[in-house]
Design goal:
Strand order of the largest sheet: 1-2-3-4
Number of strands: 4
Shape: globular
Bound molecules: zinc ion
Radius of gyration: 17 Å
Distance between the termini: 37 Å
Order of helices and strands: HHHEEEEHH
Strand content: 5-15%
Largest sheet: 4 strands, antiparallel
Length: 147
């Protein structure tokens, strides 16, 4: 299977470049690539772009669902759809989480989206702490329901 061989060659190339990065101390981004964190972050960025476009044409209202914004991507590791909780209005606290990964597929952390549609990644422990905040009650309930 030539395509399989090609994939293996690419994987070797990636591991080699990761190895080089390690020598300059930070293997962090190498690890992000290896467990598809970067790919997942790109998908979530795409979702944030589409939310922004939706809001621009809907009187600054968040889309009721991600599908309403034209987004139907899933985490490349868990295959699960992203959890989303649309605020009624633009929250006063823009660090309010509006979307996140349903599972924890990445060894380096949990990806989520804030109300300003910026993307963040934190450890699972930090993510749990974020969900415990009162401003994140809606996303915490949606996250729990998705488990
Ligand atoms: Zn993911």
């Amino acid at each position: 299977m030539p395509s399989r061989i090609l994939t293996m060659v690419m994987l070797v190339a990636v591991s080699m470049s990761v190895g080089c990065k390690r020598t300059e101390k930070a293997g962090y981004f190498g690890d992000l690539r290896k467990d598809k964190t970067e790919e997942c972050a790109l998908l979530l960025s795409q979702a944030s772009k589409q939310i922004g476009q939706y809001m621009a044409s809907h009187n600054s209202k968040y889309p009721p669902t991600l599908v309403d914004a034209g987004f139907s991507g899933t985490c490349p590791v868990t295959g699960k759809a992203y959890v989303y909780a649309a605020p009624q209005d633009i929250p006063s606290d823009m660090s309010t989480i509006i979307a996140c990964e349903a599972g924890n597929g990445h060894s380096r952390g949990h990806l989520y989206m804030k109300a300003d549609t910026s993307i963040a990644i934190v450890t699972e422990e930090q993510f749990k702490n974020e969900l415990a905040k009162p401003v994140n009650a809606a996303i915490a309930a949606a996250f729990k329901a998705a488990q």
